[in-house]
Write a structure and sequence with these properties.
Enzyme class: transferase
Helix content: 40-55%
Number of helices: 9
Family: Belongs to the DHHC palmitoyltransferase family.
Number of domains: 2
Membrane topology: Multi-pass membrane protein
Number of strands: 11
GO molecular function: protein-cysteine S-palmitoyltransferase activity
Structural class: mainly alpha
Strand order of the largest sheet: 1-8-9
Radius of gyration: 24 Å
Largest sheet: 3 strands, antiparallel
EC number: 2.3.1.225
Order of helices and strands: HHHHEEEEEEEHHHEEHHEE
Strand content: 5-15%
Shape: elongated
Distance between the termini: 22 Å
């Protein structure tokens, strides 16, 4: 077994373990919350209202979580792959400069505007394709992913064009879920503190819920805030750490279209679908509107300062985020 295959299997196993942890914590919180509302005290109108709102949030939390897990990452379509003839020519050519020119000639027929740090066409030598803009190779999933953001071990899936909206919604509903549990259980915690809560089991339910909800809320709200910042700038996690390079040079604001349009690039134009986990992101993930194409229509966009130089995109890119680092290419 090769080293890369062994590492991929190990990462998959760890991701499955993390996903089981998330499932277990969610189920435990569900059980303990019902226990607090039903067992700790008699069923009152207030507790019934708590349970109604709790289940509404829980449904959206679960729905977005499973959409993040089971929505497969989208791969580049066939026109970005090298034909059998071009692949043979490319692999048999030993001169790097000739290989580079071959890719340039092939890319002329494709809507590809980003380059490596050295100005070369972005090419994946594992998938044998010319990478569309914002596409990267994930070593864990062993494939190129359109508009790749990062590989998330907690959902055991690659987050990209096809499921980034669902991932953001999952973070949002997770934050709301934890906040709702913490605020509604806090009154029971006060009763526990004053010694007014009967039964050892009831006390355990309250302490478990408050501790877990607060712990996850702090970590999730930071992560959600970071991704909200990325969406407002129309960036991916990879682009935040590795400035995209265009034919004219590095431009870290290359895909920034303005706050409203940036949000629409993820959630779509129809606002009634923004809170519902159904696909509404515009486009096909292979090409994206760019800042440079809008400057003639809006001169204010040209007043931004140029961004600093980027490192060579041909080398391995570290998918850095709040998650454990996964290697992408």
């Amino acid at each position: 077994m090769s080293f890369s295959l062994k590492m991929a299997l190990e990462n998959t196993e760890l991701s499955c373990i993390r996903r089981h942890i998330v499932n277990s914590v969610a189920l435990c919180k569900y059980y303990h919350y019902l226990s607090v509302c039903i067992v700790a005290e008699r069923m009152t109108i207030g507790n019934i209202i708590y349970l109604i709102f709790y289940h509404a949030i829980f449904v959206f939390f679960t729905w977005t979580y499973w959409k993040s897990i089971f929505t497969l990452p989208q791969q580049p379509n066939q026109k970005f792959h090298l034909s059998y003839t071009d692949k043979e020519r490319y692999e048999n050519e030993e001169r790097p400069e000739v290989q580079k020119q071959m890719l340039v000639d092939m890319a002329k027929k494709l809507p590809v505007y980003t380059r490596t740090g050295s100005g070369a066409v972005r090419f994946c030598d594992r998938c044998h394709l010319i990478k569309p803009d914002r596409c990267h190779h994930c070593s864990v999933c062993a494939m190129c992913v359109l508009k790749m953001d990062h590989h998330c071990p907690w959902v055991n899936n690659c987050i990209g064009f096809s499921n980034y909206k669902f991932f953001l919604q999952f973070l949002a509903y997770s934050v709301l879920y934890c906040l709702y549990i913490a605020t509604t259980v806090f009154s029971y915690f006060i009763k526990y503190w004053r010694g007014e809560l009967p039964g050892v089991r009831s006390k355990f339910h309250v302490l478990f819920l408050l501790f877990v909800a607060c712990m996850f809320f702090v970590s999730l709200v930071i992560l959600f805030g970071y991704h909200c910042w990325l969406v407002s700038r129309n960036k991916t996690t990879l682009e935040a750490f590795c400035t995209p390079v265009f034919m004219s040079g590095p431009e870290k604001n290359g895909f920034n279209l303005g706050f409203v349009k940036n949000i629409q690039q993820v959630f779509g134009d129809n606002k009634k679908f923004w809170l519902i986990p159904i696909g509404s992101s515009p486009g096909d993930g292979h090409s994206f509107p760019m800042r440079s194409m809008n400057e003639s229509q809006n001169p204010l966009l040209a007043n931004e300062e140029p961004w600093e130089e980027n490192e060579d995109d041909n080398r391995d890119i570290k998918g850095r985020s709040s998650y454990p680092i996964q290697r992408t290419y």
